[in-house]
Each structure stands twice: as structure tokens, then as C-alpha cells.
């Protein structure tokens, strides 16, 4: 592919949201010895993508401008590096490009072999691409801090999932129900039936007094909370928690970090756990297998052509997607 150019979408500075995205022609990247070159079929947008653009992780990310954003992709291998053993041209895969590198809003991208997995024919490019940041976050939050066993064994746990109709939340509800759990979920009224269809035992409208207070309709005390949104103080969670509960905060701010420190210092049994997923190939292979077997689904909020990537960007920033948002070259 040396010397060929491709259509890509990049930004040249911090800020400006969708208006800051620029359509450009750039060289097709060349895979290093441990990388594969992918012809992309779908890229999933995550909130972290536009938060990086807003400067949330400045000066660490992006490492330089211009920057082609997004990391979660599905596509076809077209070229492999000299040390790649697991893949060949023509293989259908999903891959995580790495937050520092990005590259997903383009026709082609390079991915490390170590974070690329085979995509079976039963799993579409979009269904696979949605699993990376969002699916790994939901899986790891439930299995590690929350202690849910996905094979259904272990003691029964009462789980609360906030913002359950969003990218991470809709996976968290489904994965939690593979375990021995009772799941209460919060969402807006328009998504009640949707979240019920994912398997939630109880659904709360976060705009009602009961929903805002996070009170289980059946009086459950939560053993773990997968907290996928912001703006809920510890004082709201605390009376609804069991004696040794954990609130797993996926977007911890300064207040959450303070609560985390205080709970640790006072040896409280009720803990707030700031959480960040870890890229893990085995976890990703598990998620792909669950989709193949029909035990997990990626719900597609919307698909947008690469030529209108800014529409997908705006849709994500708006914060009311049901499921996942995709860009397709």
C-alpha cells in the first residue's frame, strides 16, 4: 500500500467539537513488524474520544497534532508485518488501535497483533467494534471489583447499573445477567422497554424522585454499582448499599477521588472504586464469543458514513445515544 492515500478525519487543535473535525487525504499507514494493516469497515465512537479532543488529558493526549481519533475498529486484514503470526490478508478482525495512536476515523489503520482478534462471520464489523472500550469496561468492572461470575455460579448479588441504555451500560446489564444477579438499572423513560429487553429486573426513571434517589422498587440493597454517568453524589448511593458494597465509578471526578480516599482512610466497608479498563485480548475474545453465541448483543444507536463523521461525533457529545454509535468508511 506504500504511496497510496486515503480519506481520513482529523483535528488540528483542542476544542471545537464536531466543528473541529477536518476531512483530509493522508498516506495509508505502513504496518510495523508486529502490526497488521486493516481496511476498516466500522469504527465505534466513545466519549473518551471527544473528551481527549476537549483537552481532558492534555498534555498527554493526543501526543501530537494533527490527530486522527477513535480506537475501536472492525475490518479486514490487507497486509501484515514481518513478525505477525496469527493473521493473514483477508482475515476479518476487530482491533483496538491504542489511545495514543488513534486512527479509526479513516479508510485504513494499523493495529498491534496483540490487540487484534478474529471476528467470526456471525459478528458484524460494527458489533465487534462496539465491544472494545465499552464492552471491556463493563466486563472488567463486573468481574473484578463487583465479583460477578459470568458462568452463573457464586453468591447472588444485587447490581445497580446507572445510565443503562448507553454504550457501557447496555453491555453491563447483559453481562451482569449472565451471572447470579438481580439487576436494577436507571435510564430515561423513553428507554424503559429497551433496558428491560436487555434483561434488567427493575428499571428506574432517573428523572423521577424515586429514580433520582436510586431506590430499588423491591427494596434491594445493592452489593455493587456500575456507575456509568456523572453527577450523583456518594450521599445518594450510601443509603441504598449493602454493608460491604462497592460503587464502581467509571468516570471519577475530583469529588469521587476524595470519597475514595476518605473511605480508604476510615476503613469503611462501603467503598467507592475509581475504575479504568485494561486492554486485554483474552477478555475481548470472550466478548466476541458471547456475541457469536447470542448471549450478548451490541445495540446500534446509529451508523454514519465517514464523509459525515462529524454527525456521529455530535451524536456522542449529545449524550443520549441508545447503545453504540458507528462510523463506516
From TrEMBL:
Recorded hits in Pfam families, A to Z, give:
ADH_N, ADH_zinc_N_2
The highest taxon in the source lineage is: Eukaryota
Entry-linked SMART domains: PKS_ER (SM00829)
Domain Enoyl reductase (ER) positions:
17-327
MF-aspect GO terms? oxidoreductase activity
Q: Which InterPro entries match?
A: ADH-like_N, Chloroplast_QOR, ER, GroES-like_sf, NAD(P)-bd_dom_sf
Q: What is the recorded name of this protein?
A: Enoyl reductase (ER) domain-containing protein
